Write the structure tokens for this entry.
Amino acid sequence: MTLPTRPLGQTELRLTELGFGAASLGNLNRRIDDATGRAAIDDAIAAGIRFVDTAPFYGRGLSERRVGDALREADRGVVLSTKVGRLLTPDASATAQEARDGFLSPMPFRVEYDYSRDGILRAFEASLHRLGLDRIDMVFVHDIGRKVLGDAHDRHWAELTTGGGFAALESLRDQGAIAAFGLGVNEVEVCLDAIRVAPVDVLLLANRYTLLEQTPLDELFPLCAQRQVSVVAGAPYNSGILATGTRGGGAPFYDYGPAPDAVVARVRRIEAVADDWQVPLAAAALQFPLAHPCVASVLPGIGDPRRLAQTLDLYRHPIPEGFWQALVAEGLLRSDAPVPTTRDEAVRA
Ligand SMILES: NC(=O)c1ccc[n+]([C@@H]2O[C@H](COP(=O)([O-])OP(=O)(O)OC[C@H]3O[C@@H](n4cnc5c(N)ncnc54)[C@H](OP(=O)(O)O)[C@@H]3O)[C@@H](O)[C@H]2O)c1
């Protein structure tokens, strides 16, 4: 059994509409033990999910080790993506209790950014070894962009372009070592830059095409459509607030930090419409990105079997079409955003 799949760009790959975001398995914000993480992936595959995304950055190798262990057991036709741009080097000063970049108990490695040809090829080899797999299907250039790299972005962008980083990925694809490559980022601007200079197949764009924000409709998605570049809509809950809502007590998360007041206020207004239509906020957040024809898969974070089961329910939860129209009428959703239809529901049932 697999969930419905969609083609990825001009490649032979197909992604299930629902993917498994494995940043969680690097202990992002909460500790997951090996057995729980393993059960989450096993259950996901049993439920028909055939796309898993990991990265060296997620627990500094921990997520890749766990994902590799799960996928190595059997060839279960899972499309696997990981990322390049950060090399891990041993760091004796790291302690097991230390949280770094939001990951709890990460492994004892330090991150070094390197987007050059050599850095990308070394990162790719190191990922194969950590995963313990002979194949990675997709490689994303991780977190290139000004938001993460600040002033260093220009230097790293030069590594990718004139320094041969993109060319290295292209040659891996030409040799058949990977089937697809692109960026894995939180920023729209750098996606536009990449499409214009490199033959990318896919963009993993996290946090930017959600119930809260739809800026890719302006320029990015039309360009993706024109160039046949697919989008993986990562972090559909904006890292938390669109799943937890605002009423759970404590500060909801938005883009990996406490949500700003303006975001909380907007989510409260979305929650009010969701209440009127008896729609779970998280179901709307999970299903919304899939309505756009450029989106090949939606990629939420899943860390344990209970969350997986909830996610599958949210993915299939019926949502009346009037709900989306009500959001548009309230100025809470762009009127040019494609919205899910009952036909989509029938395919998922
Ligand atoms: N630069 C990049 O390439 C990039 C950036 C960001 C994300 N990504 C990819 O996208 C994936 C997903 O991103 P993400 O995990 O950061 O963000 P997300 O899926 O938007 O949000 C995950 C957060 O929402 C919570 N949550 C999920 N379902 C919930 C539910 N039903 N009820 C209550 N809370 C719920 C999770 O809590 P629990 O932890 O308690 O389950 C977690 O705190 C990542 O794993 C990664 O694969 C890539």
